[in-house]
Amino acid sequence: MATGSDAGKSAEAVLEWPKQDKKRMLHAVYRVGDLDRTIKCYTECFGMKLLRKRDVPEEKYTNAFLGYGPEDTNFALELTYNYGVDKYDIGAGFGHFAIANEDVYKLSETIKSSDCCKITREPGPVKGGSTVIAFAQDPDGYMFELIQRGPTPEPLCQVMLRVGDLDRAIMFYEKALGMKLLRKKDVPQYKYTIAMMGYAEEDKTTVLELTYNYGVTEYNKGNAYAQVAIGTDDVYKSAEAVELVTKELGGKILRQPGPLPGLNTKITSFLDPDGWKGSLTVNDECKTCLL
């Protein structure tokens, strides 16, 4: 039996891994009611590219990956269509995706001229600031924040999720997944606080925007948004760190690390303390991962 000292050293060693691992945000997974319609919407309105599409008839679903660059370097959106299901509940917990663009006014006009997306907030500076933003809604009801920003290697720049305890969420993503707190902003006049978490600066990569609304500790998550997938150099060490942190902060491992049936792809999946699902996949095996 390990002594208290040994156990402490072991835990300390486990938590060193997320600090060393070369993790990166891979893709967000969510469900849509008409896959071809959504592909058309994202390519025509947002200028995304269809990276790949696959049909899995034995499991009765089709999915498509869209983004602004190759999956081995860029973040992607994984859209899933389940045969015969044309509508999902987005819930109140999921917030939005964000797209960085050099001219939000022009992008908004492109969206307005389409027949699939709509502008729900006209482009203009944020209240009390100078950053130009707009909001658009896709046919399934998913919201996209459009952020005016200079050239960036990653236009798909944010995934926003609402959490019930912001400090707990920050600690989880720092300790379990090695993310950095890039910035934190409290907006008392509108009764919310946000924290940007990621593996590089906001203008260089995709980040998680965690939002805490004063006094709200739990959200209905619906059944539309599924998870964020993160690449790792070692899925076993990463799962060990996540499992250790869940014992302290909440959440749980949903799938123990290991290869998928019939494939060499190794993954693990988990819930964070707010019940948001995430998965970890070995970096060089990401493109064959069935999430």
Can you describe what's shown?
It is a single chain. This protein is of the alpha+beta class. It has a single domain, classed as Roll (2,3-Dihydroxybiphenyl 1,2-Dioxygenase, domain 1). The chain is built from five helices and 16 strands. The strands form two sheets. An eight-stranded mixed beta sheet has the order 2-3-4-1-13-16-15-14, with helices on one face. It has an eight-stranded mixed beta sheet with strand order 6-7-8-5-9-12-11-10, covered by helices on one side. Strand 15 (266-271) and strand 16 form a beta hairpin. Helix 1 (4-20) packs across helix 5 (235-249) and helix 4 (166-177) runs antiparallel to helix 5. The protein is globular and about 55 Å long. It starts with a helix and ends in a 9-residue tail after the last strand. Mean pLDDT is 93; it is low at 1-6 and 287-291.
Question: Summarize this, please?
Answer:
It contains 5 helices and 16 strands.
Draw up the topology in text.
Layout: H1 4-20, E1 24-31, H2 35-45, E2 49-56, E3 61-67, E4 76-82, E5 94-101, H3 104-112, E6 118-125, E7 132-137, E8 143-148, E9 156-162, H4 166-177, E10 180-187, E11 192-198, E12 207-213, E13 225-232, H5 235-249, E14 252-259, E15 266-271, E16 277-282
Parallel strand pairs: 1-4, 5-8, 9-12, 13-16
Antiparallel strand pairs: 1-13, 2-3, 3-4, 5-9, 6-7, 7-8, 10-11, 11-12, 14-15, 15-16
